[in-house]
Design goal:
Elements: E1 2-12, H1 13-31, H2 34-41, H3 46-64, E2 77-81, E3 87-91, H4 93-101, E4 104-113, E5 117-126
Antiparallel strand pairs: 1-5, 2-3, 4-5
Helix pairs in contact: 1-3, 2-3
């Protein structure tokens, strides 16, 4: 694999908490997928987890080099957790199209948070020339709402 992009982001957790308080379900549905909402709401410190997902989405779009300006919705990027807890990135819609156009085969993400801040770091990876294994971006991934 070759590195095609990096991204990082940091957010104040209380800022996300304030957005949830002020805008409630409208904010949650605009920014997070159903799976992400269920995951975060099921955690002891939900606000920190929502903030971590926010930072992750920002870092991922920086890594793929698109930003928010090209018809990408917040819910086009989803962070899931594998059984051992490792976060895994799922992209769809406009984010998936841009990632595929740029030759991105996989996106790795690391998320950390405390009561005050959440931070994330994303690494966009491309295939080495001649590598024929399917990429996680191109292969048929599970529905984001399952």
């Amino acid at each position: 694999m070759v590195i095609l992009g990096i991204g990082t982001d940091i957010i104040e957790c209380p800022r996300i908490g304030m957005m949830i308080e002020q805008h409630g379900e409208l904010f949650l549905r605009r920014v997070y997928t159903d799976r992400e909402i269920r995951y975060c709401q099921g955690r002891k410190h939900a606000m920190e987890h929502f903030a971590g997902r926010w930072a992750a989405k920002e870092a991922i779009l920086k890594a793929i080099g698109s930003g928010w300006s090209r018809g990408i919705a917040w819910t086009d990027v989803e962070v899931r957790n594998q059984p051992g807890g490792q976060p895994k990135v799922l992209v769809c819609g406009g984010a998936k199209e841009i990632a595929a156009q740029r030759g991105i085969a996989d996106i790795m993400i690391s998320i950390s948070h405390c009561r005050t801040y959440a931070t994330a770091y994303a690494l966009a990876l491309g295939r080495d020339p001649g590598d024929k294994t399917p990429s996680s971006i191109e292969e048929n991934q599970d529905s984001k709402d399952s």
